[in-house]
Design goal:
30% strand; alpha+beta; 218 residues
């Protein structure tokens, strides 16, 4: 009888030790769960990165607008600088000699900074920004982004020049090859290529200010 009990005890011990590890099915289930969690974590991280890049691009455009307005608030040309402006060179000695602006369009490159010579019309009330001699530079952070909607005073357009003219950063707009003119509001959106999520920026022509808009329905 004691030998039988010993045998049963030994068998029970071996069985208990055999059940310490995981079965193949259990390992597959665990790996599947880890894979699902990792998939959603990566997708969530990618979406968060896109949202952050959209926010950064929108904030950078607003900052660029405000920077451009500050660049032109150096004062109107006087007799000492008018000759330098009229030479139409892009290497004038002071930023007060330039109109600054942003070029927006619905085709690549979507956003560009530009500077063009500011020309005082001596003896006349009007003065001008020489758009024909503008110097364009690509706006950073737009490698994967696009301009979606683009409107001026409620009218959809394909491209716009938003122009900041000395001496008080008076803001004007120019659509296509049309003339520069005053406007009330420019609204445009930025988004990733083939993506629905977007950020909307409004430029107030009466106040010469730009800000992000919470209204996404253009």
């Amino acid at each position: 009888m004691p030998e039988i009990l010993k045998t049963k005890g030994a068998l029970a011990g071996r069985t208990k030790r055999a059940r310490v590890g995981f079965t193949l099915v259990e390992m597959l289930v665990v790996l599947t769960i880890i894979g699902i969690i990792a998939f959603f974590a990566v997708a969530s991280y990618s979406a968060a990165r896109k949202q952050a890049k959209l926010d950064l691009a929108a904030d950078s455009l607003v900052s660029a607008f405000n920077e451009q307005t500050q660049n032109v608030k150096g004062g109107r040309d006087d007799a000492r600088t008018s000759a330098q402006n009229q030479s139409m060179t892009s290497q004038a000695g002071s930023i007060r000699n330039f109109c600054f602006g942003l070029h927006l369009q619905k085709q690549a490159p979507f956003v560009q900074n530009f500077a063009s010579p500011y020309v005082s019309a001596s003896g006349q009330e009007a003065d001008l920004c020489d758009i024909l001699h503008q110097n364009l530079t690509r706006f950073d952070l737009f490698e994967d982004l696009k301009i979606g909607d683009l409107t001026i005073d409620g009218t959809a357009v394909e491209s716009l020049d938003v122009i900041f003219k000395p001496p008080f950063a008076k803001v004007l707009a120019r659509s296509g090859d049309g003339p520069m003119r005053k406007f009330l509001k420019i609204i445009f959106s930025i988004a990733f290529q083939n993506a629905a999520d977007k950020r909307v920026i409004e430029i107030d022509g009466s106040k010469s200010t730009a800000a992000r808009s919470q209204n996404l329905n253009l």
